[in-house]
Design goal:
heterodimer; A: 207 residues; alpha/beta; five-stranded mixed beta sheet; two-stranded antiparallel ribbon; elongated; B: 804 residues; six-stranded mixed beta sheet; five-stranded antiparallel beta sheet; 14 strands; flat
Chain lengths: 207, 804
């Protein structure tokens, strides 16, 4: 294997996420392009072209930011020329200067993965390390929605939930009056409450 | 169920009629400001739900402004791909919607499918204000999102129940009933207290009456009904007139007593013969004591007087013992002191003589030492030291002999050692001289001390005299101490003899007056029908006896009179109390009724208050349940994922937190968490403006995704406001994922032409069934609205070739 541990980890993760290798060098508009690695998505991501650039140990001038920028710009222009709809994502594996990253942003989407905690095989050392690596290339990974299990099944609306929780020991006249008034705001609630109280407070002859 | 088509005429800023196809996964809407983008999206909401909630929140009377201002009628028709049609007609009064979504689906649409600009603004506002108040933007947002408005109204409307003061304000008549009840209760309590008082007073009066009856010998039993009869029974009898006569007799008796007392002002106990016998006894005892001890006591006295020549000792035995002992002890102590001092001086003199001897020997030794050191050693050393500079080889510069012949090292070394030895001797001589001086000083000091001691010493004769005096004093003290009891006894005997003599002489002075007083008394007793004084009775006793008889008779009269008076008074009091009791009973019944009525009214009101408070508690519980249900970990996880997609370089991610304990209405709080663990401040403090916009947008999408989708629509009105290019690119990728991987139909309006073009490229169809519609809104010649649609379809990508 000629690639670095970090690149190996990135490629493995992207393969898992449904990206296929594009053999390098590849040719666009009769021009050859060579990068540390290139990948392409399937189906909904078929227009995603991902370039992996090893800024620390890469060959083909990958360690030279200027060379990288020139090649990516050339590729972008070649894609324009062929009226391609490919969307470029450049993954910079290893440390990079903020200015160089910004310059690349003009051409395509840039994700910079500075480092990851990996074992000798290029696998994240633990779940936390895996999560940290995923976070850095999150955009390229599928979006996992929480399963609907555990989602609130019985989504009673607020008032229905309140009705359901009313118990027999509440004063029914009061409950129904203030709940009815609640649609007209807190003032109406207090008003309804006040009316009922006023009626209750009228003195009655003793029986 | 996807939206497929919409036709709008004369709705808000859309004038005339436009028809827009919507049948694509992603619909991009572009137009200049005022071209009708927001109107198009509002039309969708109105058609589906019959309301335009963002407009309604801005202006409750919004219905009157739905129709384009220059027209008379309008309509909206929205079709879906499963053949459903939603139609709404517009007039100057407002909108009338025919078919609508079911309520739950409509609520889902309004809450979680449609992000109007106002809501985005509100979301941003949430982050920027940090207060936890009930009226905060976050609280409003949560309330509106979860439909808590009515619960909040109930909560706020029922709040006055909490505090009694506020409760009184809203419960008309409560305060009045309270004060009326309190007043009447006070009255009732007063009445009861008064009745108790009356009861007690009545019981007391009856007891007094009974006591009075017993005192004058009437049967005790009496009740409230027999008061009048008792009054008659208590009228006085004629025997009460004797009192005047009795008083006269007592006055006469008193005169006799005074007469007798005058004759007897020198009074003493005992009679003459017994006093005389007592005196003889005391005298005998004293003489017996003198006979036994006189000689010894006199000897001691003489002895003491000899030892204390200057003292004047008292004659009384006891005083003599006290005074002579005190003085002798002082003398004895002084003599002992002097004797000790002399002994000490003698001891010290022999010690000092020994010390002096030793010191002189040491001085001698020092002198010997000094003698052994040549006094010129220092000078010689100095001279030799000078010679060393002339030593160049082994030949001595003084004697010219070759030192090497002696085979004891080099000459220079030899001389050097010599110099060192000599100078050491010189140093020692100095030390010795100093030591000698010190030793000489010590010897002189000892000699001085010896001289002082010698002068202080007394001769042997004086010393033995000192110890003899001391011993004599000691003996005198012991002797007096041994006689202490005898001297004390003598004192007592002397005193008692003196006292007995004085008593006898006083008694002999007293005498005859008694005989005449007794005669007078006898006469008086006869006249008062009492026994005359007996022979052996004293005048005082006889007067006392008669006086007691008269006093007892007078007391009896007075007691009976008093009992009658008290009885009559008790009857009067009892009658008055009975009258008061009857009156109070009537008043009490009236006041108790008022208390009862007011208590019942207050009880009804309090029951309602309790009910209302319970209801408010339920509202709080339901509200808390809903908030906990919605703002949960699912939402936070999803939100985090979305936020990181859009802002991969931001280390802090926003999250909702439900406080564990809350003092008032439960409210989720916004916080940030560091991606590596740990928590940050509020989003407003931690995130840039662009990331706040990202946070707001991703929160909406997370809220949309966190519940099962009732309808697969997501409608966004110009959601990218202060985002930079990186965020926009990432946002576009997210839209793609939502539309293409999660089956959402995304309708998004943008006003920025550049952005519109960018999204059109970025969101291009990626596979054969994929689709993208771009709608352009503009105005025609007569200011009519125009809508042009540009449909993009899938095209196979051929640009990429593997290099040969």
């Amino acid at each position: 294997m000629s690639e670095s541990n970090l690149v190996r980890a990135l490629l493995r993760r992207l393969h898992e996420a449904g990206y296929d290798d594009v053999p390098t060098p590849f040719r666009v508009a009769s021009v050859d392009f060579q990068f540390t690695a290139a990948l392409r998505g399937r189906k909904a991501r078929a227009l995603d072209l991902v370039l992996v650039v090893d800024t620390s140990t890469g060959d083909f001038g990958d360690r030279d930011p200027r060379s990288v920028r020139l090649r990516v710009e050339a590729l972008s222009r070649a894609l324009d020329v062929t009226q391609s709809r490919y969307v470029l994502t450049i993954v910079l594996a290893g440390a990079a200067l903020a200015g160089d990253v910004d310059a690349l942003t003009q051409v395509g989407r840039v994700l910079n993965v500075e480092a990851a905690r990996l074992d000798d095989e290029g696998r994240p050392v633990d779940a936390e390390a895996a999560e940290a690596l995923d976070d850095q290339i999150r955009l390229l990974l599928p979006l996992t929605l929480p399963s609907d299990e555990g989602a609130p099944e019985d989504r009673l609306d607020a008032m229905a939930a309140l009705h359901a929780s009313l118990s027999a020991n509440l004063d029914a006249e009061l409950s129904s009056a203030v709940i009815a008034a609640s649609a007209r705001g807190e003032g109406a609630v207090t008003g309804a409450l006040s009316d009922i109280l006023a009626r209750a407070l009228v003195l009655r002859p003793r029986t | 169920m996807l939206l497929s088509n919409i036709e709008i005429s004369n709705f808000r800023s859309i004038k005339g009629r436009i028809a827009a196809p919507l049948d694509a996964r992603i619909v991009l809407v572009h137009g200049e400001n005022g071209a009708g983008k927001t109107s198009l999206l509002s039309a969708i909401e109105l058609a589906l739900t019959g309301r335009a909630l963002p407009l309604e929140r801005a202006d409750p009377a919004y219905q009157r402004h739905l129709l384009h201002w220059s027209t008379q009628a309008g309509s909206i028709r929205l079709d879906t791909d499963d053949g459903a049609a939603f139609e709404t007609t517009l007039s100057a009064e407002g909108a009338r919607t025919g078919t609508k979504l079911p309520d739950a689906a409509a609520a889902f649409f309004s809450e979680r499918c449609y992000l109007p600009q106002s809501l985005l603004g509100q979301l941003l506002h949430i982050y920027q204000s940090s207060n936890d108040e009930l009226g905060s933007p976050l609280a409003r947002f949560v309330g509106e999102l979860l439909g808590l408005d009515r619960l909040d109204a109930l909560d706020a409307g029922l709040r006055p129940l909490q505090d009694l003061r506020n409760f009184r304000k809203i419960a008309d008549g409560y305060g009045n009933a309270e004060s009326e009840k309190a007043r009447s209760e006070r009255l009732v309590a007063d009445h009861r207290r008064n009745l108790d008082g009356i009861g007690t007073a009545l019981t007391e009066a009856m007891a007094e009456l009974t006591a009075a009856r017993i005192a004058i010998g009437l049967p005790p039993a009496v009740d409230e009904g027999s008061l009048d009869r008792s009054l008659a029974e208590l009228s006085p009898l004629p025997d009460e007139g004797d009192l005047a006569h009795l008083a006269d007799l007592r006055r006469q008796l008193e005169a006799i007593r005074r007469e007798a007392a005058r004759d007897r002002d020198v009074a003493a106990p005992g009679d003459e013969p017994s006093l005389s016998a007592a005196h003889a006894l005391a005298l005998g005892a004293l003489e017996e004591w003198r006979r036994k001890h006189e000689a010894r006591v006199t000897a001691v006295r003489k002895h003491a007087e000899a030892l204390l020549p200057s003292a004047d000792l008292p004659a009384s035995p006891q005083a003599f013992a006290d005074s002579s002992l005190k003085l002798l002890r002082v003398e004895r102590q002084q003599a002992a002191g002097r004797s000790d001092l002399a002994a000490q001086a003698i001891r010290r003199r022999s010690a000092a003589e020994a010390e002096l001897e030793v010191a002189r020997k040491q001085l001698e030794a020092i002198d010997g030492e000094i003698g052994r050191v040549a006094p010129t050693a220092g000078d010689l050393g100095a001279a030799l030291a000078q010679i060393t500079s002339f030593i160049v080889d082994e030949v001595c510069p003084v004697c010219d002999r070759d030192f090497a012949e002696r085979e004891s090292g080099r000459l220079a070394d030899h001389v050097h050692r010599k110099v060192q030895t000599l100078s050491a001797s010189a140093r020692r001589l100095l030390d010795l001289s100093r030591t000698r001086g010190q030793q000489q000083g010590r010897i002189e000091a000892l000699e001085r001390e010896l001289a002082t001691l010698s002068s202080r010493l007394v001769d042997d004769g004086q010393a033995s005299n000192l110890s003899r005096v001391s011993a004599a004093l000691e003996a005198a003290v012991s002797e007096i101490e041994a006689l202490a009891n005898i001297l004390a006894e003598g004192e007592v005997l002397t005193r008692s003899e003196t006292a007995a003599r004085r008593a006898l002489s006083e008694r002999q002075a007293r005498d005859l007056a008694r005989t005449s007083a007794m005669a007078t008394l006898r006469e008086f007793a006869m006249s008062a029908n009492q026994a005359p004084p007996a022979e052996n009775e004293t005048v005082d006793n006889a007067v006392e006896r008669l006086s007691l008889v008269f006093q007892a008779r007078a007391s009896e009269f007075e007691r009976r009179m008093s009992a009658r008076r008290k009885g009559v008074e008790a009857i009067r009091k009892a009658k008055a109390e009975i009258r008061r009791r009857t009156e109070l009973d009537a008043v009490l019944t009236g006041d108790a009724t008022i208390v009862g009525q007011n208590t019942a009214a207050l009880r009804r009101a309090n029951a309602l208050r309790a009910s209302g408070q319970t209801l408010r508690g339920l509202v709080e519980t339901v509200r808390g349940d809903i908030i906990r249900r919605e703002f949960n970990d699912r939402l936070n996880r999803l939100w985090r994922d979305l936020f990181i997609r859009l802002a991969p370089n931001e280390p802090f991610v926003p999250a909702f937190k439900i406080p564990e304990v809350t003092t008032h209405r439960l409210q989720p709080r916004l916080i940030t968490e560091h991606r590596g663990g740990g928590s940050g401040g509020t989003p407003g403090a931690m995130l840039s403006a662009g990331n706040l916009n990202t946070a707001a947008l991703t929160l909406f999408i997370a809220l949309h995704l966190t519940v099962p989708a009732q309808r697969p629509w997501m409608i966004l009105d110009d959601p990218v406001q202060s985002m930079d290019d990186v965020h926009i690119a990432n946002f576009a990728a997210l839209l793609r994922i939502l539309a293409k991987e999660h089956g959402r139909q995304v309708i998004i309006a943008v006003h920025d032409r550049h952005l519109f073009e960018y999204l059109r490229l970025e969101l291009s169809p990626a596979y054969p069934e994929d689709s993208l519609l771009a709608l352009e809104l503009s105005r025609g010649v007569h200011q009519d609205s125009l809508c042009t649609a540009d449909r993009r379809s899938y095209r196979e990508e051929t640009a990429l070739r593997v290099a040969a």
